[in-house]
Amino acid sequence: MAEEIRKILEQLLNSISGLYCILISDRDGVPIIMVQNDKAPELAMKPAFLSTFGLAIDRGSKLGLGKPKTLICSYSQYQVIQMNKLPLIVTFIASDCCNTGYILCLETQLEPILSNLTLVVTET
Amino acid sequence: MEKHIERVMDDIISSPNVFGCVFVDHQGLCLGVKGDASNESAGIIGAIADQAAKLEPQSQPPIIVMEDDTKSCIIHRNGTVTGAIYKTN
Q: Is residue B29 within 8 angstroms of chain A, CB to CB?
């Protein structure tokens, strides 16, 4: 199953120019599956960075607007888009000029993969 | 700003045969949507305009028309804003 998922993710990665990495991790930021190219920044793929999303959505939910679904962080050279699919976190790392809206569209395409992975994570 | 874009979209949607429109910024994020159109298509519309512009990089941004038997979608980029208009043939 892992190979199939990796293949699908690689296809998605190659379909968007400027997208460097797609990473699916658990709520602690531990990577479950990851596809990347050589431009992906190492630091943004570490659990220390990924797990801050969990804290951010906890804080964000206190704004009274419901649970955050997506977090977009725009940096000078990169943008990091994280989706709340708890118990999973989906992270996209892309260049700053990459089409953010197009990456957000991938959510529906990832849904079948995520439902499979969620089953695995909740069982373990 | 919203009022201005709302007015533009109202003008567009009141044109004959037009049933929807979407406006997208340079990052593919939805600026506004009116009628029978989805804000989820914003990113794809931006990407289509980007890819089509790469065919002739020296020229002005192209007008892209996609049509089927009954409907058509017209996409055009002007500066940082891309607009898509859906209309019946």
A: yes
